[in-house]
Amino acid sequence: MVNVSFDALRTGEIYVPGLSSEYVAKKYGVPIGDIAKLASAENPHGASPKAKAAIEAAQGNLDIYPSWTAEHLREAIGERYGFKPENIVCGSGETEVISMVIRAFAAPDQPILMHDPCFPIYRIYTACEGRNAVFAPTGEDFDPMIDNYIELVKKGPRIAFVTNPNNPSGRFLNDEELRKIFDAAPKDTLLVLDEAYIHYTETDGSMHLLKEYDNLIVLRTFSKAFGLAGLRIGFAISANPDLISPLLRIKPTWNMGQLQIIGGAAGVFDTEHVDRAVKTVSEMRKYVTGEMGKMNRFRMVPGSRANFFLAEILDPDLDSTIVFNELLKRGVIVKDGTDIGVGNRYLRVDLNQKRHMDRYLNALREIETQK
User: Fold this and answer.
1) Could you give the CA distance from residue 349 to residue 336 in angstroms, rounded to a whole number?
2) How many CA atoms are closer than 13 Å to the CA of 361, on its beta-carbon side?
3) What is the pLDDT of residues 248-295, one digit of tens each?
4) Where are the beta strands (DSSP E) in the chain?
């Protein structure tokens, strides 16, 4: 018997990515260089220079099969974070690793816990694999409501996803809060700590907790702070190699190409590039907070520690789709809240270079003055 949900495969939710600058330029006639692309959480300064240099030097290897386990990349990640290669598995983006985790560790109909709202891929893959999504509610301004989550994790879901900082709210949990969750979970619950946006919290993250919990996996991506979204590189890491070996077996054999492996192995050490992106995001978070605080029809939801934030629409005559389309006309791409599970009163907006944030802010000011 095939253990999938055919309804989910035929008619279920589909992930909605951010629109491209090319699409907006063609449809609305905005010069492509002027467009503020604020919907995909990409690095404000582009790709890691170290990764780009390594890729250019590796062009001669395109005819050669890569290591099927991406060994060179796993060694580099291990060296960077203090783990052995057997504690790491790599995927074509973190999204592939998420699908591998769900398939390997949860049987059909078993519960998988996640916050509501969450990264849509969690619930999409859970549905497509025929597993049972369990949602932990969030509170005012998307407060993660840790006590509620703990009560649900005590019931023993097969997998429990904790995204830190959360996508789409950007809310951040400290080590004390994470330990409360992890300590409450039964030992046979797989804990998955997704740190895709962790660099923008200006902390080292919580990878050190791996040595305290042998049922914990940490996920990270190269798409955000390293600026390598186009290469598609993500990884799972655990102090317990017994959690990694099933993932090595279930992954597609050659899921990582030569350029992914080479670029990632160089980019993971590009701390200068990461630091530059983090500095820009931190500065723009403060700037946009101040500017949106002067508005009457829109509000920046407080508490984000990621490279994006939620903007709330206060005017009852507007909704997220109306504002989303009005922003597109003005060359600003954001995420419509109806596409990311937060409803029609919110937009998700990236933090980027000042010229892009000014275009976004000026567009909102124009919409505010419309009658």
Assistant:
1) 9
2) 20
3) 999 999 999 999 999 999 999 999 999 999 999 999 999 999 999 999
4) 36-37, 88-91, 111-116, 132-137, 159-163, 190-194, 216-221, 234-237, 298-300, 308-313, 332-333, 335-336, 346-350
Q: Which structural domain range is residue 333 located in?
A: 6-46+272-369
Encoded amino acid at 151, one letter: E
Instruction: Tokens for 176, please give them.
Output: 């004390």
- Condensed to tens digits (0 to 9), the pLDDT of residues 151-171 reads 999 999 999 999 999 999 999
Last residue of a domain, one of 211, 234, 269: 269
Residue 217 backbone phi and psi in degrees, to 5: -120, 140
Domain boundary among 269, 303, 338: 269
| Pairwise CA distance, residues 253 & 246, whole Å | 13
The per-residue DSSP string of 64-129 comes to SPPPTT-HHHHHHHHHHHT--GGGEEEESSHHHHHHHHHHHH--TT-EEEEEES--HHHHHHHHHT
Pairing of strands 111-116, 88-91: unpaired
Q: What is the pTM of this model?
A: 0.96
